[in-house]
Amino acid sequence: MHGIEFDVAHMLAGTLVLASFMMLYQDRLPALLNVYALHALVLALSVAWQAFIQDAPHLYVTAFIALTFKAIIIPVSLHRIIVRLGIHREIETAVSVGLTMLAGIGLVALSMVVMLRITPGADALAREDLAFALSVVLLGLLIMVTRRNAVSQVVGFMSLENGLVLAATGAKGMPLVVEISVAFSVLIAFIVIGIFLFRIRERFDSVDLQALDRFRGERR
Amino acid sequence: MSMIRDLMSQGGDMLLVLTLAPLLTGFVRKIKARLLRRQGPPLLQPYRDLLRLMRKDVVLAENASWLFRAIPYIIFASTWVAASLVPTFGTGLLFSWSADLIVITALLGSARFFLALGGLDVGTAFGGIGSSREVMIASLAEPAMLIMVFAVAMIAGSTQLSTIAEFMGSSAVGLPVSLGLALVALIIVAIAENGRIPVDNPGTHLELTMVHEAMVLEYSGRHLALIDLSSQLKLVLYISMIASIFMPWGTAAPQAAVHSLALGAAAYVVKLAVCGVALAVFETAIAKMRVFRIPQFLGAALMLALLATLLRFVSGSL
Amino acid sequence: MITAALVCVAVLLALAPVAIALAAQMRGSAIIYSASLLACLALLVIALFALLDPAHPILSTTLPVGLPWLGAHFRIDALAAFFLAIVNFGGAAASLFALGYGRHESAPGRVLPFYPAYLAAMNLVVLADDAFTFLVAWEFMSLTSWALVVSHHRESENIRAGFVYLLMASFGTLALLLAFGMLAGSGGHYDFATIRAAHPAAVLSTTVLLLALIGAGSKAGLVPLHAWLPLAHPAAPSHVSGLMSGVMTKVAIYGFVRIVFDLLGPPEWWWSMVVLAIAAPSATLGVLYALMQRDIKRVLAYSTIENIGIIFVGLGLALAFKAQAMDWIAALAFTAALFHVLNHATFKSLLFFGAGCVLNATGERDMEKLGGLIHRMPQTAFAVLIGCVAISALPPFNGFVSEWLTFQAILLSPELPSWGLKLIIPAVGGLLALAAALAAACFVKLFGIVFLGRARNAVASTAREADGFSRATLLGLAALCLVAGIFPGLFIDALAPVAKAMVGNSMPHQAGLQWLTIVPIAKSRSSYNGLLLFAFVLLSGSIAALAIHRLASDRFRRAPFWDCGLPDASPAIQYTASGFSQPIRRVFGTTIFAAREIGEMPPPGSPAPARLVVDMHDLIWDALYAPIAKATGFVTERINVLQFLTIRRYLTLVFVTLIVLLVVLTI
Amino acid sequence: MTVDALAAILLIPAVSAAILALMPDYRPTAAINVAASLFTFLTALSLFVIRPVSGPYLLVDDLNKVFIVLTTFIGFTTSVFSASYIGHEIAVGRLTPAFVRFYHAMYQTLMFALNLALVANNIGLMWVAVEVATLTTVLMVGMYRTHEALEAAWKYFILGSVGIALALFGTILVYMAARPVIGEGLDAMVWTVLVKRASAFDPALLNVAFVFLLLGYGTKVGLAPLHAWLPDAHAEGPTPISAVLSGLLLNVALYALLRFKMILAASTATIAPGPLMVVMGLISVIFASLMLYRRRDIKRMFAYSSIEHMGIIVFAFGMGGPLANLAGLLHMTMHSLTKSAIFFAVGHIAQVKGTQKIDDIGGLTVTNPVLGWGLMLGVVAIVGLPPLGIFMSEFLVISSTFARAPWLAAILVLGILIALGGLFMRTNVVMFGEPKGITKPTEASYVPMFAHLALVCMAGIYLPPALVSGFTSVARLLG
């Protein structure tokens, strides 16, 4: 079924991975958030496209959720939060970007190998989608691991979750996709609220053990 | 009929060792004195000493317990029984099968056990020294003795002393190396057990190296007499043990006729005399050891006996 | 009949909850102990029936508990019957003793509930006929005894002792578990009948042997797995110490015999070398340790290690001869071992109970604070004296007979073809002889320092004789020591069916021989008659006494002791326990305990006292246990960092795991 | 009628959760909570009598029947315990009425989620249920609002969410594997269908799927090195929640894992589950046992012991074979009963002594004999000493695996021994010696604790045949 729809789906999925890389590259929070908005937008597009080619109307709902909730509401609110927490000007001292990029490339390669090697049976579209989705997931994890700041970790998690939605929509005729995406949105909402309520910045994630001990049930 | 004779010979044996014991001690003392160019006490002096002690009152320490008074009798009885189980002039005594070589060793062990307790009973410093050293010596001498017994028993194929004696008397023995080793071991053990020079010096008091005398320091009167008598019995016992194992010539066979019994008795007396002289000579020739050299002395015996046993194990012939 | 036995065990188990209720009452301990006494006596009778009746069928039954598809199998064969008798004999003695001793218990609530449960557990181990029931009972035994060990929980060393004990016990149990897992295979056929039927492969059965040796040996206290024993046994209340030392170690031996002689099939010749190489050193080291102690109960605990060593020597010889199909000698060695099991159970309980009486009377376990107790508590002293003579393997008491039989077996071992054994067995004999001699020294010290001499402190001089129950128990056990010593034939014949079942042959029948002599192989070879010997000694002793008192004098007078003319009234001049064993420490200690004496002399002219410091090391502990403890401490400290990482680090862990798994999957 | 039983198990908690959330007054909430849990438990019991037909969304079979009953039972006992516990918390003012209402509502929601996860026949639905369970527990863990509690909740939240994400990816992969065989649509996510057709699935894809599922649900199970959330969540939350976490949530996550393992077991060509689970199990056992030695907080210590036991269970299932699987199922049951009992005891202790620090608690068997010996019994059970239930399962695991894989079994034994040492070393301090610190009077109800312990004790000696027959049939399915 090498047709236009395949190419478009392929292109969109690839763009998603690219967006993940951009996020990996960003070391300032506002920029990161913007890229995440882009990420979510691309996701929405690709979901919509899937809805179109699988003519599964319910997927449009997912696409809509992705567009409104993830591409608009979340980034905006997070902008507010970081401004309020006064960390919007911070340059994150993460693991050096170059290294991260290399690791990212490695991960993409790995996911390609894993997926393409093991899914000769499935149809090409699904395989590509899965491969891309897996790399988005892994990249999201990588972002979470390499960022010190709670907010950027959350962003990483959301990109990871985008990867999941991509996979879910890519899996042709999978039921409950909408429910799942809703559930995830709820989850993310919780996280964001959590950050907002508890004023969680990097304090729980400081490498300074003195600071850590203050919040540890068990002293050394 | 034979039963009665066996009983008689057994009883005779018991009386014989009992009567010979002081004489042997006196004999050894005499020889030693002569070797030192002294006149020396008369041969029968030990009997006189014993009788005198018997007649004297016993002086008990205030805090001496009932055990303290029972101990001399226990020691005497077990030593006497042990001595009477060793064939003297004839093998195959009536009750010889009631105990073998291991049992005899153990009997002497119980005598020593109680002697050491006696040393501790009153709670004096000297008693403590004596018993603590005694058990140290025993803890090495007893294993040496037992392993020696193993060697001999494996040669003779029995731990039964009379059987061993008969076997040794027969021509089947040959001349095994391990037998020689066993002999040396036995002699060393005998010296240690009887508290002779170089391990201990029965002649002296108030010497910091004394062992046996320190233990019996608080004993007096008949108690002391019994203890002395039993140590004399012990000497006879060991000599007759050596005799019956290593020079079984002339010993009367079981159920032997009267004349051969008489012959055996004569041979026995001769053996005792020979050993006594040898002991006297040895004692005059050698000096007393420091207490903490004794373990090495006895260790040598232990090693010799072990070597003998090992040889028997590895090859039946050696 | 087995139902009756199980009912008795059930009664014991049921007593535990009752005890919780009764612990508060005054008469609680009396009720519990008398009830367990009755149960033990009933079980003892059952066991003796099963053992002595020659035409007795092997009883077995199955209860619908435990593993559902298996049920709990119980069986009384000759071996089980013998050990059942041992367990309940010891249990009955301990209960009787405790009727008096238990009254002085400070915290009955911590002893009463566990005591009957402990007895029940030991019985169940012996009765069990499938691996699961066996192990449940086995570990339950450890658990209950642990609870008894920590019953006096305010001394921190008791807690430590309990900790080490429970850890070692579980180690042993897990070893046995692995052994049974090996025997039963992954099919789950855990009943002994099936295991017995299936003959495992050589390498497999070797593993089982080693595991059994580790598992049972650690419970019995074989060196080097003995470390817990001298800590735990003294920590418990004395009647429990008696049970642990006198009975529980025997249950361990039962486990070993059951696995190695019964379930494992025909032995390899060299197994015996392993057993002997562990057993003989255990005997000698155990008594050497005992000689170095100051604490009465600790001396007794270490001497338990020695006796266990002796028993295992017997078992090892039996294995060797069984492997060479010389079953009549194997029977001799095996019988010797079992007879020593009985003897040790008797006199070790006696001695521990005696120690308990001393502890009650003086509140002191340190020998160097005691002394002169023979005046204050004559009957206890008499009983303990007999125990000491018996455990020192001196005729005419029971300890001697079993060691004599073992020696006879050793003397027959040149018949063995294999060279390794030819070389190792003489050494074993030597070590055994050494152990016997050292044991005598050790118990001269124990009795002499504790009961003889003069009281070293006030409590010792005001001690009071133990109560009636305790004395009755002590004297009864002492009497048994004598009886077993002078009528060994009866006991040997009683053991015949056990030997027949385990090594395929039994010692010749002894009862018929004239004067009750025992003849292991042939009369020309060796024979022993305890009765006659005893009669002789008694006779000649009394004759001498009579003669002297009649013919010479029977007068005596009291006077201050002489001590070579330098009498010093202070009891401090007496030899102390450590002083008494100093010569032996000089001889052996320097190598075995790395013992050093450091004399600290004050400078000339200073009135300060000179001091002699002795420092000794338990080399086995230093070499084996301390490193493990150290390693655990080190590793836990290092790994503890993982509790204090940041969320990002934890995420990294997850991430890395994921990547690793994916990579593993792709390649 | 039959469906009702199944529905009721879900409806009762859901409805009562709503009611509790909307209640104006907080006082009766505890009572309502208990009542609701009791009813759920009773309805669950009815499953033994009549088995409802299982549809595409819900099912009841031998495997989950037992776990439903177990879960509802522990839910009930815990609600009884929590009634007295929360009462005390209000008394000392650690909780405000608002929070109490919220707490009980959350409790019922959690019960709903757990039951849903157990009865779900649709792997997607199961996933959703587990996620809901996670969210509710997060909220409850953070309830005390202390820095420690918030930090623990946050850590739990983040790690849990990542876990959930991975699990979802695994689920999607399973669907992908199933689709070519079963075809698009709902059926490809219905477990019963999947198991039937699993032999035809693409094994390689299933393997990858299982990796993600193992990591995803394994995070919930608390396997090292995914365990990080578990100790703090147990230590900082209210004790009833610690009991529910250890007793139920871990089990449910493991149950989800088992469902997928059965799919893999059904398809012959797959290799992944066995070795992976064995290795992770052993790592967890050894790691957790070593962590026990340095613990100062009693709740955190028992949390680590939960990790250890999860390790043992996963090891058992990884080894496979009828006996080992049976042992694993048995161990799950026994562990949740015992561990929740232990947490009940610990909760009371923390309230009596006013601290969770091990070094500040001492001589408990003197000051509070009942409580002290109760906890002692629990510890004895949890380290696997007879005659209690866990000994039986450990016996089966070890003895059945030693003949096959001696070294693995040996490592497991080592781990169990280390754990025993650690637990006893720390509990000795709590139990024995001179009493330390203050001792407040408490009106705690010991019934739940001793009910659990009695069950465990009975199971160690006698297992009801019904249970065993059910388990054995499941064990066969587990391969």
Explain what you see.
Chain A has 220 residues and is mainly α. Chain A has 8 helices and no strands. Chain B is mainly α. Chain B has one domain. In chain B, 70% of the residues lie in helices and 1% in strands. In chain B, helix 4 packs antiparallel against helix 5, helix 7 packs antiparallel against helix 9 and helix 9 packs across helix 10. The model of chain B has no long low-confidence stretch (mean pLDDT 87). Chain C folds into 3 domains: 265 residues, no CATH class; 282 residues, no CATH class; 38 residues. In chain C, 69% of the residues lie in helices and 4% in strands. Chain C is built from 25 helices and 5 strands. Chain C has a two-stranded antiparallel ribbon. In chain C, strands 4-5 form a two-stranded antiparallel ribbon. Chain D is an all-alpha fold and 479 residues long. Chain D is 78% helix and 0% strand. Chain D has 19 helices and no strands. The radius of gyration of chain D is 21 Å and the shape is globular. The model of chain D has no long low-confidence stretch (mean pLDDT 89).
Question: How would you briefly describe this protein structure?
Answer:
The complex is a heterotetramer of chains A (220), B (318), C (667) and D (479). Chain B has 318 residues and is mainly alpha-helical.
What is the element layout, followed by pairings?
The complex is a heterotetramer of chains A (220), B (318), C (667) and D (479).
Chain A: H1 4-25, H2 29-53, H3 58-85, H4 97-118, H5 124-146, H6 150-170, H7 177-198, H8 209-214
Chain B: H1 2-35, H2 45-55, E1 58-61, H3 66-85, H4 101-121, H5 125-156, H6 161-169, H7 177-193, H8 212-215, H9 221-246, H10 258-285, H11 294-314
Helix pairs in contact in B: 1-3, 1-9, 1-10, 2-9, 3-4, 3-9, 4-5, 5-7, 5-11, 6-9, 7-9, 7-11, 9-10
Chain C: H1 2-22, H2 28-52, E1 59-63, E2 72-76, H3 78-101, H4 114-127, H5 131-149, H6 156-184, H7 192-197, H8 202-220, H9 229-235, H10 238-263, H11 271-291, H12 296-323, H13 327-362, H14 373-376, H15 378-391, H16 398-411, H17 419-451, H18 458-461, H19 468-486, H20 488-503, H21 530-551, E3 556-559, H22 577-580, H23 582-592, E4 596-600, E5 611-615, H24 619-639, H25 647-666
Antiparallel strand pairs in C: 1-2, 4-5
Helix pairs in contact in C: 1-2, 1-4, 2-3, 3-4, 3-10, 3-13, 3-19, 4-5, 4-10, 5-6, 6-8, 6-9, 8-10, 9-10, 9-12, 10-12, 10-13, 11-12, 11-17, 12-13, 12-16, 12-17, 13-15, 13-16, 13-19, 13-20, 15-17, 15-19, 16-19
